[in-house]
Amino acid sequence: MKVVRVQYTTRPEFAATNQRNIAAIVEELKSLNHPGIKYTAWLLPDGKTFMHFDQLENEEAHLVLQGLASFHKFADELEASDLEVEPKLELLTLVASTEHYF
Question: The organism sits in which domain of life (predicted)?
Fold first, then answer.
């Protein structure tokens, strides 16, 4: 299992576009219905800081997520948006959970 947490802060004027791009990823993932990908994104109270929390069965599932057309659009536009705070990526290790994962 691979768990990835990414957090970054957009410029206020880009936040709505970023939310739409994230929604497109979610829609593409829903249509794909891949059993090894759990993807969530959160908006922090400041309205411009985003946290993504991806739970992936394995590296293959991670590559599927990264290969989505919607993910490429999201990543390209995010990179070009002049972020206030650059992405911080963390790889997490599950210690315990009430949920069953892969």
Answer: Bacteria
Rounded to whole angstroms, the Cα distance separating 100 from 48 reads: 31
In one-letter notation, the amino acid at residue 73 is: K
d(CA 22, CA 61): 18
The residue count for the chain = 102
User: What are the structure tokens assigned to 84, written together?
Assistant: 């206030």
pLDDT digits (tens, 9 = 90+) for 14-70: 999 999 999 999 999 999 999 999 999 999 999 999 999 999 999 999 999 999 999
CA distance 67 to 58: 15
Q: pTM above the 0.85 mark?
A: yes
